[in-house]
């Protein structure tokens, strides 16, 4: 059997390549089969030649379509964030330069310029003041050399360090090179988050890591519990690296131990919120194909454990429910968080790849159901360091986690540089 055209491959509608590829497939197929119609072995060989010839050419078109594909995948953000006139110009000028756009519709281009000036104190686009790294720039033309962006207020060094700085990243030839390009620019450390936390904990084991009501846990204990958790999740529960666990816990110390344990084992937490109910959780479990779900027993009068039991019964992938609080009728999360017996440090599974997804956050968005946001170890580590620096947090900071711990901001506070945290929120029921 020979497949050709849409049945074999597509690129992206924005590059108008489907008909061309289908026609070229047909031509190549005829050329390959020409003259070998009666010999079955020769037909197989001809089909292999056809496939080899077309695979490379199709891959080239698909590669060429990738930037356009990516633009279309993300242009909804522009729709949500730009006023209509700017969105329209942004949309059209993706494939047409302004001069060509003006040939077709001069009134539209003039109206866009007018709208820009009206919104920016009468300045033309390139002459519009902008603030870069906290410095006022009178226009939008900035010479950049190997060492600095030459802003009007002074040079902005192109390397990370104290104070303001910028980074120069060379676009890689292929998507596969993106990791390296960003790592080279100094943003990514190439280390998994569990290892980063372990390094910090190892350096200050006696310091307080978190306080939750009467529970006070030092960094050494946190790491020991997290490693024990990692080995219990993988050993006792049979979870594997890359498996997902939906975590619906209030701010409590078990949340922290479970999260760090997952990071150590490469198990990926999906950060649900305590306010979610069956509708949202069923979706999250199904969409992430979660194998485990962690819930409080009862929280603010709602029986999460019962809801989890119903989800477990209905889900094709869920195998375990972990319960924080009294009377756990499933896995006892508090017991899973216990320190290992003295002298028997549990084996920690091999570290995850820093390019792997470390955690799934949720985005509310405009639709009813939350969307999953994948954060890799590399990028989430950078996120933690950058936001700690921006907020002026360091190891002497005590952070009151009043926001839900499953939100992005409080999760970042517990890492590099990690403060002595306080987790006083709702306790599992
Ligand atoms: C809205 C739109 C706009 C497009 N614009 C462009 C463009 O601007 N430029 C471009 O290059 N490409 C464009 N394409 C893509 C292009 O049309 C396809 O890539 C191309 O037609 C693929 O050719 P094909 O022969 O593989 O499949 P098709 O053209 O889909 O042919 C498959 C045929 O098989 C028939 N069929 C299906 N099942 C059976 C069956 N069981 N028995 C018998 N017959 C069956 C179908 O009726 C159809 O006639 C566009 C596609 C769409 C949908």
Number of individual domains: 2
Total of DSSP H or I helical runs spanning 4+ residues: 14
As a whole number of angstroms, the C-alpha radius of gyration is 27 Å
Strand order of the largest sheet: 8-7-9-12-13
Mean pLDDT: 88
Calculate the terminal CA-CA distance, rounded to whole Å: 61 Å
Total beta strand runs: 17
Instruction: Write the CATH fold name of the largest domain.
Output: Rossmann fold
Structural class: alpha/beta
CATH architecture annotation name of the largest domain: 3-Layer(aba) Sandwich
Q: What is the CATH class name of the largest domain? A: Alpha Beta
Structure commentary:
There is one protein chain. This protein is α/β, with parallel strands linked by helices. The protein folds into 2 domains: 5-81, no CATH class; 193-422, Rossmann fold, CATH 3.40.50.12780. The chain has 14 helices and 17 strands. The strands form 7 sheets. Strands 8-7-9-12-13 form a 5-stranded parallel sheet, sandwiched between helices. Helix 1 packs antiparallel against helix 2 (40-81), helix 7 runs antiparallel to helix 8 (219-236) and helix 8 (219-236) packs across helix 9. The termini are far apart. The relative contact order is 0.08. Mean pLDDT is 88; it is low at 415-429. Flavin-adenine dinucleotide binds at residues 5-7, 16-20, 22.
Record the SSE blueprint.
Elements: H1 18-33, H2 40-81, H3 84-92, H4 98-104, H5 106-119, E1 130-132, E2 135-137, E3 148-151, E4 154-157, H6 178-184, H7 193-203, E5 208-212, E6 215-218, H8 219-236, E7 244-247, H9 253-265, E8 268-271, H10 278-288, E9 292-296, E10 298-299, E11 302-303, H11 304-314, E12 320-324, E13 331-332, H12 333-336, E14 357-363, E15 371-376, H13 377-391, E16 398-400, H14 408-413, E17 420-422
Parallel strand pairs: 7-8, 7-9, 9-12, 12-13, 16-17
Antiparallel strand pairs: 1-2, 3-4, 5-6, 10-11, 14-15
Helix pairs in contact: 1-2, 2-3, 4-5, 7-8, 7-9, 8-9
């Amino acid at each position: 059997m020979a497949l050709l055209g849409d049945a074999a491959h597509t690129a992206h509608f924005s590059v108008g390549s489907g008909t061309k590829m289908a026609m070229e497939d047909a031509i190549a197929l005829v050329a390959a089969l020409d003259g070998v119609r009666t010999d079955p072995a020769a037909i197989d060989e001809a089909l292999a030649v056809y496939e080899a010839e077309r695979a490379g050419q199709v891959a080239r078109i698909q590669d060429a379509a990738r930037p356009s594909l990516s633009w279309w995948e993300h242009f909804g953000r522009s729709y949500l964030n730009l006023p209509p006139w700017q969105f329209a110009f942004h949309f059209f000028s993706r494939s047409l330069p302004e001069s060509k756009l003006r040939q077709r519709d001069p009134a539209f281009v003039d109206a866009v310029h007018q709208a820009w000036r009206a919104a920016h104190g009468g300045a033309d686009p390139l002459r519009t003041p902008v603030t870069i790294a906290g410095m006022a720039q009178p226009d939008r033309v900035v010479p950049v050399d190997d060492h600095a962006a030459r802003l009007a207020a002074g040079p902005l060094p192109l390397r990370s360090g104290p104070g303001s700085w910028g980074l120069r990243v060379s676009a890689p030839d292929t998507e596969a090179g993106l990791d390296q390009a960003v790592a080279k620019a100094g943003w990514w450390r190439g280390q998994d988050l569990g290892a980063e936390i372990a390094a910090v904990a190892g350096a200050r084991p006696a310091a307080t890591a978190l306080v939750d009501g009467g529970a006070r846990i030092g960094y050494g204990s946190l790491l020991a519990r997290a490693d024990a958790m990692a080995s219990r999740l993988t050993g006792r529960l049979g979870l594997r690296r890359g498996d997902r666990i939906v975590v619906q816990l209030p701010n409590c110390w078990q949340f922290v131990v479970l999260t760090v344990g997952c990071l150590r084992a490469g198990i990926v937490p999906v950060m649900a919120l305590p306010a979610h109910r069956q509708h949202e959780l069923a979706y999250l479990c199904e969409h992430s194909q979660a194998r485990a779900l962690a819930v409080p027993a009862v929280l603010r009068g709602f029986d999460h454990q019962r809801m989890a039991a119903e989800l477990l019964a209905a889900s094709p992938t869920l195998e375990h429910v972990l319960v924080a609080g009294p009377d756990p009728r499933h896995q006892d999360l508090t017991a899973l968080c216990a320190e290992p017996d003295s002298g028997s440090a549990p084996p920690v599974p091999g570290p995850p790849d820093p390019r792997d997804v470390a955690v799934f956050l949720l985005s509310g968005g405009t639709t009813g159901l939350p969307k999953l946001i994948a954060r890799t170890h590399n990028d989430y580590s950078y996120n933690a360091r950058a936001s700690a620096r921006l907020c002026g947090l360091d190891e002497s900071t005590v952070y009151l986690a009043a926001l839900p711990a499953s939100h992005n901001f409080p999760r970042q506070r517990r890492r590099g540089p990690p403060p002595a945290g306080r987790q006083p929120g709702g306790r599992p029921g």
